[in-house]
């Protein structure tokens, strides 16, 4: 029963006995298989991205090989129960019969076999992460029939060896290296370098060798019955949804783990039938830059995965015009049709079989961050989408990538090679030649560049760990390029002049220079250049634009900057959420304002007492008498006032929320262990210092086992008389002086760690008295507001009461997350978060993206309760979630007025606030 409950929870349905489960009843009568003619692009949840788009192209009348799709629902049943739905086999048989009638041949028949591919297809693109098997239906009995029908014995045996190799690895679990080694041995025996130089006899011998490998490694012969091959391949595709690499990729890309994959069964077309055949990948625009043109790769006499696998270097797609002009012209026309239909960059896979063009896949293509912004504005100019849609085509994570530094091209550097600029960025690190080392060194704090001949899905761990990826083979459509672009990782592919030897862990340049593992290299994903040593970096033009050092309207402005400017301008026009900065000094405040901050949402006053001021706070906390305490406060007052004057000048006319002192005590007291050792050693020498003895006694008295839940925030202000009054006076006097100097200070005073309205009432009463004194002394009306941080569960649960004494709430989601979950952020992320992420307990750290169900529920409820008490209550958030793209959308939906984040995240928050507003408006209109 437990397994049934767990399975039902994964599906999102209630768990009841099988005979009563309405979900099971529904599934038993569900349709699990769809012909390509029955679907469309809007059925991605059911047919997966690949199947839905194959159906859409079929509906558009494009040349798609006939086939059918096994739905994601079938996959979910299989993954939950361990077996396919009872109705699935009959449905597959029905659609297979229809396919055979359409093709005029039967699956695997001896004289003229129908062959099919079995390919995965999740809702969201997961390039290379799940399994594909081509040439299903070939056997000892049918290979000769295929050769006769094609008039090409080599082609038939090449297709058969590919089937055994792919099937053996993906379905039967044979180590793929065994097949690769056998293939390499066959080539070496003939003194050749590429597999297309193997003749029919060589391939026939290789097939026998491959079958021996299968028998030895699995204890069974390679299956000869075509339907068994297909059924086993379908199961393998289902199983591949939960492979380690697939789960890792989903975590990286935040793809839900309960979607399942569809399976596409498609009649085979062959690109390995000779020089008038081939396979390729095309983009309707350059996925690296966004520029319009002819982009892609083509490989003659090749099949299926050869292009993306990077096992042979391709030719540019433009060369197809010379190789096969008719197919080229038709492809260009289809590409234009698809881009206009999808209104976006399309990624296309195609095969040419003896001069006949076939479309095998299309999808909205992955692109770099820069390409995303350029393409969005291009499509607006072409009238294909409007500004609201353009805003949805980009995101904050992409904008953050564009703000990373780039190489200083004027600096002294030594270029050692050049490849294809596959995914932009400036990456520097130590050379490593396998994924294990990349992960190991990265965890030790080293920055690494993963160098491979070509990557494959098993390299995903290393690609994630590395600063960048460099390969000597493959092009813009290779596995390395596609995955790197999806992750926003710097990548240079196809650097052919660099000889990569992964076994010896070295790379050799054309002039003989050897780069050993551990040597520092730099790769430029924007130019494809590879350098030895570390190349200095300079700020990105996008940062210069936000800083005001580059005018987006200038004629010589970077095209990317113009695109960013246009989209940001629209986001600012439509967003409801205002964006403030977390800033503690005038320098950060000025930078934040240049980045578009609309005020300061959090000024942490404890940060003003670091360094030489730390001793003053220590004396205040440890003061024995009222006079000692007053003396310490008198020292601190002018320093605080000067700090606030600078802040109010930097943010003149904009709100500045100042949080009163909120340090855990241990941050301002001597370390108890160090002090104890010092006193003990002094006592042993009989020269103990009286001050140290008294200090140790006081520190022992104030020592806390858990300082984060101890004497801090409002508790400190209530226990140390005059502390908060001093800070309020400093704020008020700074504001008064600024106002008398014709400025426009807009200070907001925030009381931290409030858990009950009584705490806030006491502090507010004292603060209002101080403010009144300052107003009278300076002859001004300051209109200061007082509010509180909502960072404790009790505060959130009693928000309606607390709002009676608060002008505003600011949600401190860092502490709220700690207290809701019972997590100590300083400890848990290093101790067990990795395990929680790997086990799927978290999709992402709750400190990175807000936990909507737990913490988020408290935020929603507190916001509603606060506004019910005080309709004009201002609501904001000042935890690090304020700059997280996904969290910004949540705060928009929760009805908050503003988010506050670090200065460099302000553009990201502005963009996401605009996207949230546009998305909300679009939902309302629907």
UniProtKB/TrEMBL annotation:
Signal peptide as annotated in the record: none
Which Pfam families would you find in this protein's record? PEP-utilizers, PEP-utilizers_C, PPDK_N
Q: Which ranges carry the PEP-utilising enzyme mobile domain?
A: 446-528
Q: Could you say which cofactors this protein requires?
A: Mg(2+)
The record, for InterPro entries, names: ATP_grasp_subdomain_1 (IPR013815), PEP-util_enz_mobile_dom (IPR008279), PEP_util_AS (IPR018274), PEP_util_C (IPR000121), Phosphohistidine_dom_sf (IPR036637), PPDK_AMP/ATP-bd (IPR002192), Pyruvate_phosphate_dikinase (IPR010121), Pyrv/PenolPyrv_kinase-like_dom (IPR015813)
Query: PROSITE patterns attached here?
Result: PEP_ENZYMES_PHOS_SITE
Instruction: Give residue ranges for domain PEP-utilising enzyme C-terminal.
Output: 562-913
Keywords tagged on the record: ATP-binding, Kinase, Magnesium, Metal-binding, Nucleotide-binding, Pyruvate, Transferase
Cite the Gene3D superfamilies for this sequence: 1.20.80.30, ATP-grasp fold, A domain (3.30.1490.20), ATP-grasp fold, B domain (3.30.470.20), Phosphoenolpyruvate-binding domains (3.20.20.60), Phosphohistidine domain (3.50.30.10), Pyruvate Phosphate Dikinase, domain 2 (1.10.189.10)
Query: Which reaction(s) does the protein catalyse, per the Swiss-Prot or TrEMBL entry?
Result: pyruvate + phosphate + ATP = phosphoenolpyruvate + AMP + diphosphate + H(+)
Domain of life of the organism encoding this protein: Bacteria
Q: Which family does it belong to?
A: Belongs to the PEP-utilizing enzyme family.
What name does the UniProt record give this protein? Pyruvate, phosphate dikinase
The species this protein was found in: Streptomyces decoyicus
Taxonomic placement: Bacteria, Bacillati, Actinomycetota, Actinomycetes, Kitasatosporales
């Amino acid at each position: 029963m437990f397994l049934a409950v767990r399975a039902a929870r994964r599906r999102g349905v209630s768990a009841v006995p099988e005979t009563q489960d309405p979900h099971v009843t529904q599934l038993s009568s569900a349709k699990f298989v769809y012909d390509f003619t029955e679907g469309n692009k809007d059925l991605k949840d059911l047919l997966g991205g690949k199947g839905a788009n194959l159906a859409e192209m079929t509906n558009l009348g494009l040349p798609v090989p006939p086939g059918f799709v096994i739905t994601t629902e079938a996959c979910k049943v299989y993954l939950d129960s361990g077996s396919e739905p009872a109705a699935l086999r009959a449905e597959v048989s029905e659609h297979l019969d229809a396919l055979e009638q359409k093709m005029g041949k039967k699956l695997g028949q001896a004289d003229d076999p129908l062959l099919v591919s079995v390919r995965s297809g999740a809702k969201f693109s997961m390039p290379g992460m799940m399994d594909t098997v081509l040439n299903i239906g070939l056997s000892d009995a049918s290979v000769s029939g295929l050769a006769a029908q094609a008039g090409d014995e080599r082609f038939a045996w090449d297709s058969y060896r590919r089937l055994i190799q792919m099937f053996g690895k993906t379905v039967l679990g044979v180590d793929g290296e065994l097949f690769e080694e056998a293939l390499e041995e066959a080539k070496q025996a003939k003194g050749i370098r590429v597999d297309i130089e193997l003749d029919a006899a060589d391939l026939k011998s290789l097939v026998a060798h491959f079958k021996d490998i299968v028998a030895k490694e699995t204890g069974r012969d390679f299956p000869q019955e075509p339907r068994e091959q297909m059924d086993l391949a379908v199961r393998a595709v289902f199983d591949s949804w939960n492979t380690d690499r697939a789960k890792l990729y989903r975590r990286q890309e935040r793809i839900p783990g309960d979607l399942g994959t569809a399976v596409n069964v498609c009649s085979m077309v062959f690109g390995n039938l000779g020089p008038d055949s081939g396979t390729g990948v095309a983009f309707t625009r350059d996925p690296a830059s966004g520029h319009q043109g002819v982009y892609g790769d083509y490989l003659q006499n090749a099949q299926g995965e050869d292009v993306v696998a990077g096992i042979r270097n391709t030719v540019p797609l433009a060369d197809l015009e010379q190789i096969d002009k008719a197919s080229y012209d038709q492809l260009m026309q289809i590409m234009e049709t698809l881009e206009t239909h999808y209104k976006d960059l399309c990624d296309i896979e195609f095969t040419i079989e003896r001069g006949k063009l076939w479309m095998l896949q299309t999808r909205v293509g992955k692109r770099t961050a820069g390409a995303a912004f350029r393409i969005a504005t291009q499509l607006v100019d072409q009238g294909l989408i409007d500004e609201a849609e353009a805003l949805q085509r980009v995101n904050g994570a992409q904008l953050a990538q564009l703000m990373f530094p780039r190489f200083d091209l004027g600096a002294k550097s030594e270029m050692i090679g050049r490849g294809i600029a596959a995914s932009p960025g400036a990456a520097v690190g130590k050379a490593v030649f396998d994924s294990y080392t990349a992960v190991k060194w990265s965890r030790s704090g080293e920055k690494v560049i993963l160098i491979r001949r070509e990557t494959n899905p098993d390299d995903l761990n290393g690609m994630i760990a590395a600063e960048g990826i460099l390969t000597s083979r493959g092009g813009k459509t290779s596995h390395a390029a596609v995955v790197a672009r999806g992750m926003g990782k710097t990548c240079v592919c196809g650097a052919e002049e660099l000889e990569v030897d992964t076994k010896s862990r070295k790379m050799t340049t054309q002039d003989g220079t050897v780069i050993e593992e551990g040597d520092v290299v730099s790769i430029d994903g924007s130019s494809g250049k590879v350098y030895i040593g570390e190349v200095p970096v300079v700020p990105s033009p996008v940062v210069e634009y936000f800083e005001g050092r580059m005018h987006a309207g200038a004629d010589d402005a970077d095209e990317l900057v113009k695109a960013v400017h246009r989209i940001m301008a629209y986001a600012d026009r439509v967003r409801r959420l205002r964006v403030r900065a977390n800033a503690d000094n005038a320098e950060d405040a000025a930078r934040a304002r240049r980045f578009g901050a609309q005020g300061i949402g959090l000024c942490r006053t404890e940060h003003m007492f670091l360094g030489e001021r730390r001793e003053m706070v220590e004396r205040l906390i440890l003061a024995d008498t009222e006079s000692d305490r007053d003396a310490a406060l008198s020292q601190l007052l002018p320093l605080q006032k000067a700090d606030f004057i600078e802040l109010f000048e930097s943010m003149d006319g904009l709100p500045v929320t100042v949080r009163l002192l909120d340090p855990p005590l241990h941050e301002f007291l001597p370390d108890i262990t160090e002090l104890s050792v010092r006193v003990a050693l002094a006592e042993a020498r009989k020269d103990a210092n009286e001050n140290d003895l008294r200090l140790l006694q006081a520190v022992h008295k104030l020592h806390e086992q858990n300082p984060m839940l101890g004497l801090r925030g409002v508790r400190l202000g209530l226990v140390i008389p005059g502390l908060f009054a001093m800070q309020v006076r400093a704020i008020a006097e700074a504001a008064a002086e600024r106002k008398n100097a014709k400025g426009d200070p807009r200070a907001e005073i925030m009381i931290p760690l409030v858990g009950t309205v009584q705490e806030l009432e006491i502090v507010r009463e004292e603060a209002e008295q101080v403010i009144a004194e300052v107003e009278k002394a300076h002859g001004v009306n300051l209109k200061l507001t007082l509010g509180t941080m909502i960072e404790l569960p009790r505060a959130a649960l009693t928000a309606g009461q607390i709002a009676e004494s608060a002008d505003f709430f600011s949600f401190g989601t860092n502490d709220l997350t700690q207290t809701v979950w019972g997590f100590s952020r300083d400890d848990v992320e290093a101790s067990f978060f990795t395990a929680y992420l790997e086990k799927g307990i978290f999709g992402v750290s709750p400190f990175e993206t807000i936990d909507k169900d737990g913490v988020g529920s408290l935020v929603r409820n507190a916001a509603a309760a606060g506004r019910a008490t005080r309709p004009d209550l201002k609501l904001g958030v000042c935890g690090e979630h304020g700059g997280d793209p996904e969290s910004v959308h949540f705060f928009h939906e929760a009805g908050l007025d503003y988010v506050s984040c670090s200065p460099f995240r302000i553009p990201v928050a502005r963009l996401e606030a605009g996207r949230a507003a546009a998305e909300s408006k679009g939902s309302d209109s629907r």
